[in-house]
Amino acid sequence: MKIQNIIFSLVVCLFACMPAVLYCATRLEVDIPVQLTSEPAEYLAGGLSEANVAATFSLSGFKNKEFQNAVETEIGNFIPAKAEAIIICSGLQRKGIEASNLVFNWDCYPTFYGSERLYIPSSNAVTYMPRKHSEDYVQKWKEFADNIRGIAARFPEKNFVLYVVQGYTEPAINPAYSLVSDPLSPRLCSETLFQALSGAENVHVLTQDFDNPSDYYTQFFTTDHHWNIDGAFEGYKQISGILELDAVEEKGIHPIENYLFTGATARWGVDLLQESVFDCNYDFSNLSIEMDDGKTIDGNNHDYFWDCNPLGKPYLFYDNYYGGTGNCSIIGGHGDKKGLLVGNSYKEALQRPLAESYEILEVGVDAKLSAYVVEKLEDRIQELDTDDIILVGHPNSYV
Predict the structure, then answer these.
(1) For residues 272-294, average pLDDT
(2) Is the Cβ–Cβ distance between 287 and 356 less than 8 Å?
(3) Which residue intervals of the chain are DSSP H helices?
(4) Number of domains making up the chain
(5) Sign of the dihedral through C-alpha 208, 210, 214, 216
(6) 60, 142, 178, 367: which could join 344 in a potential S-S bond, CB 3.0 to 4.6 Å?
(7) Do 352 and 247 fall into the same domain?
(8) Full-model pTM
């Protein structure tokens, strides 16, 4: 019995010491298989967190428990194979939730206990918990519209497009709306902007509506909140139509071979689904993308994705395949006008097809369009003298 106790105690001590061993090995730059480190966990919910133990090492830090929390966080950052532990733990929790759902038969349920991501069995997709309604959001959308109206009035010869990507938070797509009292409908954003900008003839508010999940998931990822290439092309056709641009044809799509995508929604969920991804067959090689750092690539170049960290590659298809260009100028399109495209990540899949309809397309990155409009937009219009200004983002971008 004593021997069993000794062995058990040694095993417990070994596990307790592993974070310290990994910490020392990391600091000494010992070559350790990456899967045994906590590095892969930075892409998952509950993964790596910043901790500054030295900054909280004081009597006050000890009293208010900041020091203890920092130590706990730092230790957590050096749990060996933390990513696998997180995935297994969340998976076991999800099995328990699935079992209980056999009784309650909810249309969706959390991906683990305490998760804000929800699994939808009927669509085999992951979504978010809806936000609560807030009049503050409505007021800020109206303020945004007032700012745009003022700028558009000062540039009556230019066209403005506000594209609101409603997506996964639409009630027809997200079954959690029936579980939340007084939820915030994203459609309220486009409706508020449309009403507030009524009469502004050179401002156009566009969005897309979906009545059922099957239509939605043909244009959006099941594991990510972004639109796929089909959805981006639909958005492009709406924009080019309202601006009377010469639109390019999609020419079909092709799969990205030997790759499966786990998007942001699913990986924070944690890492529970994979899906195939596609790109359009259109040849963008005539486009030249000139980035702020002086680098120039052609429109078919996606090296930013292919050369990215292998640990992050399964999770970052949309961001790195279509993005990675930052603020840039795209020239070589077939149009005869200049355009300015500004938005959060939703603009990434739009920029290449949209650039084909312009002579020059200036692209700006800004997650908060509300701040961009107030602080930068008017100056950029005067500096670039663009004919069209296109703002793209989800409802939060316009707050």
Answers:
(1) 94
(2) yes
(3) 2-27, 59-63, 66-76, 82-104, 135-154, 187-196, 213-216, 229-242, 264-267, 303-306, 317, 348-356, 369-372, 378-384
(4) 3
(5) positive
(6) 367
(7) yes
(8) 0.87
